[in-house]
Amino acid sequence: MTPLHAQHIVPASSSTKIRLSLLATALVDALGGPTEFHRRFSFPPVTSMIPSSGFGLPKGVWTDDTSMALCLARSIASSNARGIQDGFDEHDQLRAYIAWWTRGELSAVGRCFDIGGTVSRSLSIYSSYVDAKDSLEKIKTEMNHESCSGNGSLMRVLPIGLAYWKSESKARMYARRSSTTTHPNEMCQEACEVWIGAIVKTMQSACPTTTTSTTLPEAPTERNLSKLDLLEYFASFPYRNKDLRDALSCAPPTGLDSSETTDRNTQLEAHYRAHHPILKLIVTTSEEITKRSKRGSNINIADPLNLPSESVLPSSGYVLRTLVAALYCFFVSSTFEDGAILAANLGDDSDTVGAVYAGLAGCWYAGDEATMGEEPGAEKDSLFWSKRVDEWKKDLVRRDLVEKVAEELVEFEARW
C-alpha cells in the first residue's frame, strides 16, 4: 500500500471535478447495485457492469443514490430561474425528490424502483401538508430520532460541496440543512457536514481560482493536499456525535518532530496506523492477508477478495457504517478503479457505499486529461481513467442525463 503522505490530489479545473465526480457517483452506484442486499463473499467478484436481478434491471442502471444527487444538483443549478440567487431551497429540493419518487424524473429507467423508508416517510409528510413551512417542521419533529439514522441524506449531498466549495462555512451549513429535509437526526446532519468539509478541502486544493468568480475561497486549503492531510481532517474534526467521534477521530501524537516535513508525515502516518480506527483496520487486514498468503509480502490489499469481514467493516444503510466503509475504500486504494471495485464488492448497501466513495474519489483523482476512447493511451498516467473505468462509462445507462445535470451545476458554480 502506497503511504498516504505520498498520495497527492490530482489538480484540475472545478468544471472537470464537478463533471467527473457526478459521473463517478453514477458509475459506482451502478457497479454496486447488483450486489446490494447480498452477503459479502457470497457472489463472484464484480469488476464490470452486470444486470441487477433483485430489481430486474439491465446492466449499468444507477439507483436512488444518483437520482437524489441529481435532484439536489438540479435544484441548486436552476435556482436563478426561481429568483433564488444563492441556489439553496429546501422546499424545491423536496419537490424535486417527490417528482423523482412519483413520476420517475431523473431516474435511469423513468421510474423510482427503490426508495429508503426514511426518505419515503419524509416525502409523504411533506406531500400531506398545504403549508410547506409546516410540513418541513413536521419532518424535523417526527423524523428526528435514532431509528432514522440511515444514509439517505449522505448519499445525495455531494452537489453541495461541488457548488459551494469556495465557502467552507456555507457548504457545511447547507450540508446540514439539506439533511434535515429527510434525515434531521443529528448524526445524519453531522455526517453530511464532515463529508462536505472533505469535498470542499479537496476542491480548494485541486482547483485554481479565477478572477471572474464572484466568490473567492474563504481560506484556501494548502495546495498538493495528501491523503494523510485528509485523514488528519477527519481525525481532528470537532464531532458532536459520540458515535462519529469514536469511529473517525484520533488524538494527535505528542512530541511530533516537525523539523522536517517528510519525517513529520512519516511519524504522523505511523501514529494513525497505530491508533486511528480505519487505518488500524487496514493494517490489521494487511497483516492477516500476508500471513495467509504464500506470496509473502507481495499481496494486494485492494483486491476485493481481501476485504475485511462484515463483522469488522459493516456496509449497511446505517449512516455511520456507510461513511466508514466509504473511507476504508478510499484510504486503502490508490486509484479510482481499485476503490470502486472494493466498494461494489462489499455487499449489503454496496451501491450507496460506492456512490459516497465515488463522489470523494472523483474529486480526488479526476484530472484534465482526455478520457479513454477519445485519445488512445490517455489512461497511461491517469488515476481516474483506466480501460475498465472506460468500459463502465460505455455501459452506463442514461449517461447523457447525468452529464446534462453536471453541466447545469458547472454553469451555476462558474457564476457563484
UniProtKB/TrEMBL annotation:
Which InterPro entries does the record cross-reference, listed alphabetically? ADP-ribosylglycohydrolase (IPR050792), Ribosyl_crysJ1 (IPR005502), Ribosyl_crysJ1_sf (IPR036705)
Q: Which GO terms describe its molecular function?
A: metal ion binding; poly(ADP-ribose) glycohydrolase activity
Cofactor annotation remark: Binds 2 magnesium ions per subunit.
Highest taxon of the source?
Eukaryota
Q: What is its EC number?
A: 3.2.1.143
Give the record's keywords alphabetically.
Answer: Hydrolase, Magnesium, Metal-binding
Q: What is this protein called?
A: ADP-ribosylhydrolase ARH3
